[in-house]
Amino acid sequence: MRELIQETNLSPRDFICPVFVQEDLKTRTKVDSMSEIERLPLEDINEEVGIISDLGIPAIMLFGIPSYKDEKGSSAFDDKGIVQKAISQIRQNFGDKIVIMADVCLCQFTSTGHCGIVQGNKIDNDESLAVLAKTALSQARAGVDTVSPSAMMDGQVATIRKALDDDGFTDVSIMSHSAKHRSSFYSPFRDAAECAPKFGDRKTYQVPFTNSREAIMEVQTDINEGVDIVMIKPALSYLDLIAETRRRFDVPVAAYSVSGEYALVKGAASKGWINEKDITEEILYSIKRAGADMIVTYFAKPAAKFLQES
Ligand code: PBG
């Protein structure tokens, strides 16, 4: 009876699994602040994607850590860049068996650690747009399915859509980090991806956590610009915005349960203060209940395992 009346379901098919690939890395390297998450060398990517796919998880989200950084973020749009290499390798090996999504941002690739191009002490929005478009295009040439702009530059969806269409990549979809909040929940990720800003913060381009109308406006803007999937990020402290986005719009809604959310659970679980599996289950179901169609989560693999077993 409880199964019959259960309103919300969760399955490995709801997950997008983040994968960190690092250039010139010799062996898998643990991320200190994210227990059980590793950065992988290119050679280990196929094995990892195979494990993810065998768990019934339909998609990965690639993040690259380049060896070379400069002010323009050149490695981000290098056709031989680490993300591009990973995409084409996965495509060759897996064909259409897994959805390849890739982050489109500059902070891992710029010497400033900012998501856009810095001029003086400001982010140059429009110059950043051109670089983001070049990055998306080079990922498309490598064979990506979905580009996922996370830089929070105004106009990024429209610019990327146009660049993709003009080059014939009309089938490449866009999942935008539409309402990405300026959040302290990202700090473990910055440790994982080496992308902390070298000065200042991201307040001038990310949404303040005090503002929900502004977040909804960001979602609306992305829809107007032709986005395919919108995203609310982080997830747990922003369930109200997931619900509001679901209520107002008919586009697919993704939620990103970010590194800090993962680290909180892992930290407390390692002390024996909480039951990791039970908490993970409750968090993921809550995000679905709020209205997310899919969840980018570092719990993708362990959660897929326990869902298969239950
Ligand atoms: C890059 C990016 C960040 C995250 C995803 N893409 C970091 C940031 O904006 O500082 C955070 C993801 C996470 O914390 O899991 N712009």
Question: Would you mind describing this structure in some detail?
Answer:
- The structure is a single chain.
- The chain has eleven helices and twelve strands.
- The chain has helices at 2-5, 45-54, 82-94, 125-142, 156-166, 187-193, 212-224, 239-248, 259-270, 276-290, 300-309; strands at 15-22, 29-30, 38-40, 59-65, 99-104, 117-119, 122-124, 146-149, 173-180, 229-233, 253-257, 294-297.
- Strand 4, helix 3 and strand 5 form a beta-alpha-beta unit.
- The protein starts with a helix and ends with a helix.
- The model has no long low-confidence stretch (mean pLDDT 97).
- The chain binds ligand PBG.
- Residues 103, 105, 107, 115, 150, 186, 189-190, 195, 202, 258-259 line the site of ligand PBG.
Question: Low-confidence runs (pLDDT<50, min 5 residues)?
Answer: none
What's the arrangement of strands in the largest beta sheet?
1-4-5-8-9-10-11-12
Measured as a percent range, the helix fraction is 25-40%
Mean pLDDT: 97
Terminal-residue CA separation:
17 Å
Number of strands: 12
Q: What's the story with the biggest beta sheet?
A: 8 strands, parallel, barrel
Query: What is bound: which ligands?
Result: ligand PBG
Order of helices and strands: HEEEHEHEEEHEHEHHEHEHHEH
Question: Which structural class matches the secondary elements?
Answer: alpha/beta
How much is the radius of gyration in Å? Answer: 18 Å
